[in-house]
Design a protein that fits this description.
The chain is mainly beta. Helices cover about 10% and strands about 35% of the residues. Helix 5 crosses helix 6 and helix 5 runs parallel beside helix 7. The protein starts with 10 loop residues before the first strand and ends with a strand.
Length: about 850
């Protein structure tokens, strides 16, 4: 980052968000960094408060380091700790091959305000490495050092002496090896904040009010987590200070030995030297049937348990109408797949004015709207010819019929194909969500007879009028995101708890009434598999995206794993599945696809082998991945294969990494991939989300998501693909708390995180521009360019408006003064959208003026902003 001693005169570009997007403009002085006590550059060492402890490590020999503060916190060298050349003074503490230095008891009270400073020099990157800490009983009272989840230096505190609730103030710059770096962590629980300074510059800030006192030893070069010593530092540490007060920015600059003027805020974009191309397949979607995402969600079927297969003991979601007796009948199957039917014993009183039959309650009710056409399909037979049957959508108490159709008669055998009827509601039909579907008869000749039903289905209009199709409002929300791919069938749904309950794709193709379905035991409900392989492919086709096909790889959630020769049939299943997707009609499975109604092959580029196989404690994934890799590459060498855990015997084309983080951790992790080895395997971040809000994210989570996504875009030469998860939740079955989109059976809404992602991915250039921030701890940013359009995305996760000085370096000409600002913001971190207030938080777009080579953008608190600038 540049260390300017002054800033040029700037114009002010203000985007005010929800209240007003009209720009206001005036000359602006450079903004002051958070926590600065003044603008004086004359601070000296005498301005520092009295230290609680100070280790200079200038002994150069022996097994202890003196505390020069006079407070007698002598640190004993442990393990392989040694001495090396110092940064401040002649010597430093060397932990290159292990060890630490430890002082008995806490050097200060961490329940009150304090600061800790150190010079550090890393010999290797990666993992968690703690430079300074104080032990609690279970965890450290604070951690100053390198974090693996953010990939940067950080200062972190947990909410209590337990392994949860971290507040992380993380750096905005990537660490390097062999370089001395000055770190200062400041904790001020009474002010509600922690801060991290790197080389005197405020780089990280996080809300924190839960100060608690570490009562254990003071450690240099390690930490405590889960009651054990962890986070070994690899490298050198020098000149460690502890102060029983919160240092000001001027005092931190004094410690770091840098001029105060070089620590003022700045966002700098290098227009002339693009970093790399934005991955053309970066934003996508991930789907698995969780929270009734498929059944009762995007899969538009309105009848729950349409195949009578959801329970072995009772006809769940079916009830008697008119005194009938219901039972599951395994002696009267429809076919080999649906090997039972619903036996309906009709009472002797059945006749004119006394109907009898069954009702289905749907997925928390059948939705009804005016002027709507429904398609009913069912198989029915009777003990003797009866009729007519009436299929109706009616009120829950049966008093009002909203739509109905009649089946003239039913014979004594199931037909070869289902009966199909059309039901239409009238123009004055009310909107209700608690209706039911009934199948009844009032034929007197049916009295005392028996009716058998199977595959009783009801579909509303579907997206693109697919006959086994998808819910329109949910699809429209997905299409609006313009995803490049859909990863399916997910997740835990792919694996199942057992091999028997995995997603067995061969059972999900062909006519829907010939699919046996299976228990979605990962999430606790029955799947008809009506949303099968072909329906997923139709879904991808309708979005003009591409599939990311996940294949079962011989591992289940309960730890079952298949290796050796026993894996062969599962490898063959994957090859057959790829052939079904891509094969010509002359191939075995391509012909089956054609028979199912889609002769044209689907495009396929990516195949994922398994899901989250890092949970496989048997260590079998290396062998399993190899078997799939060799077989697939031999037949389909052009396909790119994605691994879900580290493998050594083969080199995957991508590796799938998943991140579910607290909002503050997601914000801090915006630089996770900045320092990644550019020669290593490319990454697919196949699941990620900040976890806060139920059933959808609140604004705080959306800010974390936006900061994280900015980092993925910035590093899209490494992270080629990304998708948020989970995608959906029915409000009546919110098993996984935080999901992108929620709905009931009538309406749906999108979350602030949806809008945050839409803002960033719809206003995105083709090339990433280098962009750095200085002394802007609550700001995350990414800059991209397409032609003469520059898109500057800025996330302000702070509760105060931010005056951000921006410089555009390397301009050949200039910038049009009019720019476009799109802003998502809200009144509080917990603000969100709901079914009753679906548009409480939505982005606003306006024209602002004052853009220039140097300008100040005033960002609303708690906001995601994308500025679209036009270069001349």
């Amino acid at each position: 980052m540049p260390a300017e001693t002054g800033l040029p005169r700037r114009t002010v570009l203000t985007a005010l968000g929800a209240a007003s997007l009209a720009g206001t403009f005036a000359a602006a002085a450079p903004a002051q960094a958070a926590g600065r006590s003044g603008t004086s550059a004359d601070a000296t060492a005498s301005d520092l408060p009295a230290a609680a402890a100070h280790w200079t490590f200038d002994e150069g020999s022996g097994s202890s380091a003196a505390d020069s503060s006079g407070n007698a916190h002598t640190a004993a060298l442990q393990g392989a700790a040694a001495w090396d050349t110092g940064k401040i003074g002649a010597h430093s503490l060397s932990l290159t091959v292990g060890g630490n230095a430890s002082a008995t008891g806490p050097a200060l009270n961490t329940s009150e305000a304090f600061s800790v400073a150190a010079w550090v020099n890393l010999s290797q990157l990666g993992g968690y490495q703690t430079a300074v800490s104080i032990d609690g009983q279970v965890v450290s009272a604070f951690y100053l050092g390198l974090r693996d989840d953010t990939g940067t230096f950080a200062f972190a505190r947990l909410a209590s002496d337990a392994t949860q609730g971290a507040a992380v103030a993380a750096a905005a710059s990537a660490p390097t090896t062999g370089t001395w770096t000055h770190l200062v962590g400041v904790s001020d629980p009474s002010a509600g904040v922690t801060r991290l300074y790197v080389n005197g510059v405020l780089e990280g800030e996080s809300d924190y009010t839960a100060g608690w006192a570490g009562t254990g030893d003071t450690a240099i070069g390690r930490a405590l987590y889960g009651g054990g010593h962890v986070d070994q530092w690899h490298g050198l540490i020098d000149d460690v200070w502890m102060f029983p007060t919160a240092l000001t920015s001027d005092q931190v600059a004094t410690l770091a030995g840098v001029p105060v003027e070089s620590t003022t805020p700045l966002l700098s974009v290098d227009v002339a030297n693009p970093a790399h191309a934005v991955s053309p397949i970066l934003p996508g979607l991930m789907f698995e049937d969780i929270n009734h995402s498929g059944e009762g969600g995007i899969y538009a079927e309105l009848v729950q348990n349409r195949t009578m297969m959801a329970s072995d003991t009772s006809a769940v979601h079916w009830s008697a109408v008119g005194g009938t007796t219901l039972a599951l009948d395994t002696t009267t199957p429809l076919n080999d797949a649906l090997n039972r039917s619903l036996k309906v014993a009709l009472p002797s009183g059945t006749g004119a004015g006394s109907r009898a039959g069954v009702a289905n309650d749907g997925f928390w009710g059948i939705p009804v709207r005016p002027r709507t056409t429904y398609t009913a399909r069912l198989f029915a037979k009777a003990s003797h010819r009866i009729g007519p049957l009436t299929v109706a959508v009616e009120s829950a108490d049966g008093s009002t019929v909203y739509a109905s159709a009649r089946l003239h008669h039913v014979g004594t055998d199931f037909p070869d194909r289902p009966f199909e009827l059309t039901l239409r509601t009238g123009p004055r039909t009310p909107v209700v969500g608690d209706a039911r579907l009934t199948v009844t008869t009032d034929d007197p000749s049916a009295a005392g007879g028996t009716l058998w039903l199977q595959y009783v289905s009801l579909f509303p209009p579907t997206y693109n009028n697919r006959p086994n199709g998808l819910r329109i409002d949910l699809m429209e929300k997905l299409v609006a995101l313009k995803p490049k791919f859909l990863r399916f069938p997910g997740g835990n749904f792919l694996e199942g708890n057992t091999i028997a309950t995995r997603f067995n794709w061969k059972n999900t193709i062909g006519p829907a009434w010939e699919r046996p379905g299976h228990m979605d035991d990962a999430w606790g409900y029955w799947s008809t598999d009506g949303l099968g392989l072909l329906e997923y492919l139709h879904w991808v086709e309708d979005m003009h995206a591409q599939p990311v096909l996940a294949v079962f790889a011989g591992y289940t959630l309960k730890g079952e794993h298949v290796t050796g020769d026993a894996l062969t049939p599962y490898v063959q299943d994957a090859l057959d599945e790829i052939e079904y997707v891509t094969g010509p009609v002359t191939s075995t499975w391509g012909a089956k696809r054609a028979a199912d109604g889609h002769p044209e092959p689907f495009p396929l580029e990516f195949v994922e082998i398994g899901n989250e196989d890092w949970f496989d404690s048997s260590g079998s994934y290396n062998e399993r991945f190899t078997a799939f890799y060799d077989a697939i590459k031999a037949k389909y060498p052009h396909l790119k294969l994605i691994a879900t855990a580290t493998v050594t015997s083969r080199t995957p084309d991508l590796i799938d990494e998943h991140y579910y983080l607290a909002p503050s951790a997601a914000q801090a992790a915006t630089h996770k991939y900045d320092n990644r080895d550019r020669a290593s395997t490319k990454v697919f971040v196949g699941e990620w989300a900040a976890q806060e809000g139920r059933p959808t994210p609140d604004l705080n989570a959306a800010l974390g998501d936006a900061a994280w996504l900015a980092g993925l875009i910035r590093n899209s030469d490494q992270v080629l693909m990304e998708c948020y998860a989970p995608l959906f939740s029915h409000v009546k079955n919110n098993v996984w708390a935080t999901n992108l989109i929620a709905y009931d059976n009538l309406t749906s809404y999108v979350s602030p995180s949806y809008w945050a992602q839409q803002i960033l991915t719809s206003r995105l250039g083709t090339t990433v521009l280098p962009a750095t921030t200085r002394a802007l701890p609550v700001i995350a940013t990414v800059a991209t360019r397409a032609g003469n359009r520059l898109y500057l995305a800025v996330v302000n996760s702070g509760t105060e408006k931010a005056n951000v000085p921006v410089e555009l370096k390397g301009l050949t000409k200039g910038v049009k003064k009019n720019a476009t600002a799109t802003v998502l913001t809200g009144p509080s971190r917990t603000a969100t959208n709901t079914l009753t207030e679906p548009t409480a938080l939505v982005p606003r777009t306006s024209t602002v003026t004052g853009a220039a080579a140097a300008f100040t953008s005033t960002l609303p608190p708690l906001s995601v902003t994308v500025l679209e600038l036009v270069l001349t």
